[in-house]
Amino acid sequence: MTAVRRAEARDAGPLALLAERTFRAAFGALNARENLDAHCADTYSEARQASEIAHPGIETFVCEDGVELVGYAQLRWGAAPACVTAARPAEIQRIYVDSRWHGKGIAQALMSELLAAALRGNADRVWLGVWEHNPRAIAFYRKQGFRRVGQHVFQLGHDPQHDWVLCREIRSGGSVA
User: Where are the domains of the chain?
Assistant: First the structure.
């Protein structure tokens, strides 16, 4: 049985390992190793995960199977790109599930928790960036009510890549507008 909960300081080490593993699994086949290495070294260290877990503007959630972390997600509060029109936007910064757990409802459970957190924080829109060459993620987000509103650059090492900016409105009850 899996459960989603808010990440705690003790999760920083296991989360760093899961985050790097899932990122490499999602993007490793289509990207240069040196760019992946640079991104992972900067983004997925244990110290960085501890900092993000403690950051008041980031809400980190993990999913565990009773033994290990199998997925995680982050909601970040702050400014959004100009293509996202919102009074109080919330960004889905990350949502990843270990490949062994794909198709078991983990991503949906994490998304539900992210949307609930956005509602608790009075967000009116939730947005995210997704690599244009990630059809699995794009399909998942479309099923969740997200629509493309623009694009931005995601710097992967030395490679500037194009992410689609997807957005959805939320209201009390989590409904899609």
Answer: 3-169
